[in-house]
Write a structure and sequence with these properties.
This protein is 8% helix and 34% strand. The protein has one helix spanning 23-29; strands spanning 4-8, 13-17, 47-52, 55-57, 69-71, 75-77, 81-84. The N and C termini lie far apart (26 Å). The mean pLDDT is 97. This is (2Fe-2S)-binding protein.
Length: 85
């Protein structure tokens, strides 16, 4: 399984993510906590800015997203990312 680097400039850290869990869970497992509600792509509470990289979704989320936003709870990481809370 491919491991991607997730850069968080505001937190001054880089973590690794392998898509075995959600990106939200990976962040939590690394002591980085972000707001969430549904964990299913419905509410949009876990929305963050995507500064660099690519994600996909198994099912399109129902939450409205700008072109530079992703949902931590349900995106699938396709490349190294830089995200901003």
């Amino acid at each position: 399984m491919k491991i991607h680097k997730i850069t968080l400039p505001q937190q001054q850290c880089v973590i690794e993510h392998d898509n075995r869990t959600s990106l939200l869970e990976t962040l939590e497992n690394n002591g980085i906590f972000h707001e969430y509600q549904c964990r299913s792509g419905y509410c949009g509470s876990c929305r963050v800015k995507l500064r660099q990289g690519k994600v996909s979704y198994t099912e399109l989320p129902l939450a409205f997203l700008q072109q530079d936003e992703i949902l931590l709870c349900c995106c699938r990481v396709e490349s190294d990312l830089e995200i901003e809370f």
